[in-house]
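Researcher: Here's the sequence for the chain we discussed earlier.
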Amino acid sequence: MRKLLAKVEPAALAAALQLGLSGAELEPLTGSVPVVQVSFTGSDRLPIYVTDAGSQVLCISYLFQERDVKVKSRTTLLETLLDLNPSVPLSDFGRIGEHYVLVGALSPNSSTDDLALELATLSDNAMDALATLKDFLKV
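Model: Thanks. This is the structure I predict for it:
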């Protein structure tokens, strides 16, 4: 966990600066796989979860859950996600269990600047995705 924190902390602070925010908070999450939750201070941006999967560093932002999707709009939502996927820089739409997510992946040898860019871009993409997909959601 220390190695992951040491890698994520400077990147999260650099990402916050890129986003024009005052800072970032990191919270290590306990479990079988080391995960660090990155939250951007003083903003309504979604948290990003970072883990080192060995062959890649994964950055995940949870957008919404299946229960949040309007039942009659589900098929159109899925088609829209597929259509949007190629145009979302550095991120991909996916699903983990009942959660719709945006995922970014980097080499474990990526620089702090590369990880900072991924965090900032993923955060922006998540905000854009929620705004774009709001008509498909109950909330």
